[in-house]
Amino acid sequence: MRATIRDVAREAGVSIATVSRVMRDSEAVRPATRDKVRAAAAALEFVPSQLGRQLAERRHAANGIVFPDLSGPYYAEVVLGYESVAAELGRSVLILSTRGRDDADAAVQAMAERCDGLVILGRTVSDESVERLAARGANVVLVARPPVGGVDAVNAENRISAQALTQHLLDLGAHRLVFVGDPSTSPDVAERFAGVQEVSHDVELHHVDDLDETAGAHLVGDYLTRALPDAFVCANDELALGMLGRLRAAGVDIPGRVKVTGWDDVMAARYAGLTTVRQPMRALGSTAARLLDELIVGTRSTPRHEVLPTQLVIRTSTTLGKEHA
Amino acid sequence: MRATIRDVAREAGVSIATVSRVMRDSEAVRPATRDKVRAAAAALEFVPSQLGRQLAERRHAANGIVFPDLSGPYYAEVVLGYESVAAELGRSVLILSTRGRDDADAAVQAMAERCDGLVILGRTVSDESVERLAARGANVVLVARPPVGGVDAVNAENRISAQALTQHLLDLGAHRLVFVGDPSTSPDVAERFAGVQEVSHDVELHHVDDLDETAGAHLVGDYLTRALPDAFVCANDELALGMLGRLRAAGVDIPGRVKVTGWDDVMAARYAGLTTVRQPMRALGSTAARLLDELIVGTRSTPRHEVLPTQLVIRTSTTLGKEHA
DNA sequence: AGACTGCGTGTAACCGGTTTCATCACCAAC
DNA sequence: GTTGGTGATGAAACCGGTTACACGCAGTCT
C-alpha cells in the first residue's frame, strides 16, 4: 500500500498537520522541520492522494467539456483550446462525447457531479437539461449554441461574415444566389441566412434536412436539369464540399459558371479550394475556459455572452483572381 | 449547501448506512424502509457526492488519455473510440494534450494521480516516464508507440500492409520506388520501410527529418531537376499530400508519370485522391480501453501486445483504373 | 517580574461517503 | 422453552487529506 500522510508524520516525528503544510508549503514551517518532513516523504515515496485532497478541499480541480463529435477539426480544435487553458489553470479536463448516445442528458448530469464546471458545445443536450444544471448551481458555459437563460455563452459571429461573404460574391458579379440549409434548425444558420439577405436582394432558399456531403451531392441533381444560379451559399462546408464534388464531376466550370461557398473552414475545404468562413475555434475553447474559471473562482456573477469574430477565407471555388491568396 | 447522506438519514429516521445501501441498492433493505429513504432523498434533492464516494471506494472511476494533438483525424478518432468504451464501462475520461507543453512528463505523472489508469498515444512522453509510471503501479496502455518493458500496447499492423501497398505498385508497373521518411525515428516507419523492401528490390530511401506537408513540398524540387522514380512511397499522408500538391502544380502527370502513396488515410487524403493505408483508429482506442479495464479490474497480470490489421485504400494517386473504388 | 506578542506545531474536527461487525427481532426446529 | 439461524438495521471505523483552534515557548516591552 502506498504511504499516507500519517506514515510520513510518524516517520518524521511530527503531526500530520505539519506534513500537510510542508507538502503544500502553505504556511511557515521551521526549515529544520521542513527538511525532516521532506526527507521522510522522499524515503517513503509519498505522493499525496488526490482523492483525499479533493474531498477535503471540496473541489474536483477538473472541468468537463461535452461535444457531439471529434471527427472533423471543428470540435477537436475547440477542445484543444479549452484543454490548454484549463491545464494552465491547473485543472484536468473531462470529456464526454454524445455521439451515438441516447442518454446524453443523463450522462451530462452525471458528469456535472465529477467536475467543478463544464462547457457544452453545440446542440448536444436539451435546453431543459442545461437549465437543470444551472438550477442545481453547476457552473456552465455554452459554446456554439444559442444562450439559454442566464447561462454564459461563447459564439462565433455570423451575420457580419455572411454580409462580407455575400458582398464578395456580388463584387464578382454573382447576383442570383441560392442559400442551401435550414435556418429553422439552428440560430447560427438563421443568422447566416439573415446576413446574406441583408446584402443580396436575389437570394433563394434551398431547404435541406441534413447538412452533410451526401445531401450536398444529392441536391445538385435538381439544378443540373434546370438553370444554375450564380452561386450556392451553403450553411456549412460538408454541404458545400458535397456539391463541389458533384458539380465538378458533372463538368460544371467552377467558379466560372457557378460559385460555391461553405462555412467553418474544415481541413478538407483547403484541399478542395473552397471559399468559406473560418471560425476561431481555438479561441472559442480558450475563451470558454476563461469564462468558466471566473464562474468557478466566483469573481463574476452577472452572465456574459461573448461573440468572437470570424474570417472570410477566399479560395478558388469563387475566384481564381490573384488579388486573394 | 447541498444535502449530505446524514441529512437524508436524519430526515428518513434511519442510519447513514441504510441510506448508503438504498442509494446504491447494494444490499437487501426492507421495502418500507427503502421507500422512506427514497422519499427523504427526493425531498432534499440529495445527490451523492462523487468526492466522498471516490475516497471511500478508493477509485477515481476515471481513465486518462494522453495524446500529442487532436488536429487531424488520427488521434481524434482514437480518443473517440476510447471514450465510447470507457463510458460503457462507467468511467469518465480525462484528457491531456502534450502539444506545445514542455512539462509533458510531469503533467502525465500528475494525471496518473487523478485516474485509475491511462492510455498514452504515440511518442508523447519519454520511455523513462512510462517506466516510472509502471514502477509506481499505475495501469498503463500504450497506443501507436513501441512497447516499453512489460507495459501493455496496442498498435496497427505495418509490415503486411506495406507489402500489399508495394505489390499494388509493382502490379501497376511501377518498379523504381523511393521511400520518403526516416525509419530511424519511429519503429512504425521502420516496419513500413522493411515491408516495402521485402517486396521491391529497387527502392531508394529519401531521408527527411520532418514528416509534414512543407517537407513534402520542399523535397519535390530535388526530383523535378533530375529523374523521377515510378512512385513515391511516403511514410505518412502529410508528406504525401505535400508532394502531391507540388507535383500537380508543376504539371506532373499523376499517376501516369509518377505515383504517390501515403499512410494513415487522413480526411484530406480522400479529397486529394491519395492512395494510402488506413489504420483502424477507432478500434485502437476501444481496444486500449478494454485492455486498460482488464488491468484496473485486475483480471489479468501478464502484459499483452495487440496488433490490429490495417487496410489498403486505393485512389487516383496510383491508378485511375475502374477495378478499384 | 509580569504581560504581551507571534511564531511554530499539535490536536482534533471536519469533508461525505462505504463497509465491517454487532445487535436485534423474528421464526423454525429440537 | 431453549437454541440456532436469518434478515434488516445501526454504530462506528475508515478512506486520506485540510484546517480551525489551542498551546507552548521565546523574545520584547513596561
Describe this structure in words.
Two copies of one chain form a homodimer. The first copy, chain A, is of the alpha/beta class and 325 residues long. Chain A is built from 13 helices and twelve strands. In chain A, the strands form three sheets. The first copy, chain A, has a six-stranded parallel beta sheet with strand order 2-1-3-4-5-11, with helices on both faces. A four-stranded parallel beta sheet of chain A has the order 7-6-8-9. The longest helix of chain A is centred in the last third of the chain and has 17 residues, at 281-297. Strand 2 (92-97) of chain A pairs antiparallel with strand 2 (92-97) of chain B. Chains A, B: GO terms for molecular function: DNA binding. Chains A, B: This is LacI family DNA-binding transcriptional regulator. Chains A, B: Keywords: DNA-binding, Transcription, Transcription regulation. Chains A, B: InterPro entries: HTH_LacI, LacI/GalR-like_sensor, Lambda_DNA-bd_dom_sf, Peripla_BP_I.
